[in-house]
Automatic annotation (TrEMBL):
Pfam families: Memo. CDD domains: MEMO_like. Belongs to the MEMO1 family. InterPro entries: MEMO1_fam. It comes from Candidatus Cryosericum hinesii. This is MEMO1 family protein SMC2_00555.
């Protein structure tokens, strides 16, 4: 079953050549923190708004994937909040292929192993209209040569348990992408203050201090923080802006951050 793109032409260009050009531009314009040179990126927190708003910030996150061995097959776990359906747990799609204007991406059979745990179930409804997974896919298609995805839309879930279940897959080349915006519709100065407090909690690994007012994807963020704690990944802020910086209107803005998680090439912090 194919899950077709539903926000192409709305959140990002529907034409493949324009989409690829835009994504390449966002990535090429990014700066990566100097102190992670030689380390391997294992995870990202990146925004999921329309590209005109959050594309430059997302590009900063995906620029970090230059540290990966692109000749190796990578399984990307995309963790996204649910914007349309309320449920408990984490939802896999019924589809085994996700489609964007840049082509098809497979969902591996390994994804089904997650349903044997306590957190994950299958729901086509949870994925049908969800943009928070879809907007990440063109960035992955431009950044990686050989990959598949395990897309999970998160409702109310025990993030510690979900983190353990994901790590138990024991995939040799796994990347975690937590899809989340930050504060919503505060005035510019208030948003900057709020978001920097949120970013501080993330960089300290304080997922328990995050809620829906801080980040719509607080459940995905809590999950990647739990995995980072177990694996010893170090986090760094790559970029922070809000829609007032990218689109101009500062009266009510949405915050965006890209944060990377790294381990060194020997697997140590």
């Amino acid at each position: 079953m194919i899950r077709k793109a539903v926000v192409a032409g709305q959140f990002y260009p529907a034409q493949a050549h324009e989409l690829r050009s835009d994504v390449e531009g966002y990535i090429e314009g990014a700066r990566i923190p100097a102190d992670v040179a030689g380390a391997v990126c294992r995870g990202l927190i990146v925004p999921h708004a329309g590209y005109v708003y959050s594309g430059p910030v997302a590009g900063g996150g995906y620029a970090c994937l230059a540290s990966l061995d692109t000749s190796a097959h990578t399984t990307v776990v995309v963790l996204a909040p649910s914007h349309h359906v309320w449920f408990k747990g984490a939802a896999l799609p019924e589809a085994d292929v996700f489609q964007t204007p840049l082509g098809d991406i497979n969902v591996p059979d390994a994804a089904k192993l997650l349903t044997k745990g306590s957190s994950v179930f299958t729901s086509g409804e949870a994925h049908a209209m969800e943009h928070a997974v879809e907007v990440q896919l063109p960035f992955l298609q431009v950044s990686l040569k050989d990959f598949d995805i395990i897309p999970l839309v998160l409702g109310e879930v025990d993030t510690e348990s979900l983190a353990q279940e994901l790590l138990a897959l024991n995939l040799s080349h796994m990347l975690i992408v937590a899809s989340s915006d930050l504060s919503h519709y505060d005035p510019y100065d208030m948003a900057v203050e709020h978001d920097h407090t949120t970013i501080g909690h993330i960089l300290k690994g304080e997922g328990d201090k995050l809620g829906g007012d801080d980040a719509c994807g607080f459940m995905p963020i809590r999950t990647i923080l739990a995995m980072a704690h177990v694996c010893g990944w170090k986090s760094r802020l790559v970029d922070y802006r809000n829609s007032g910086d990218t689109a101009g209107d500062k009266s009510a803005v949405v915050g965006y951050a890209s944060i990377g998680f790294w381990e060194d090439r020997n697997g140590h912090e």
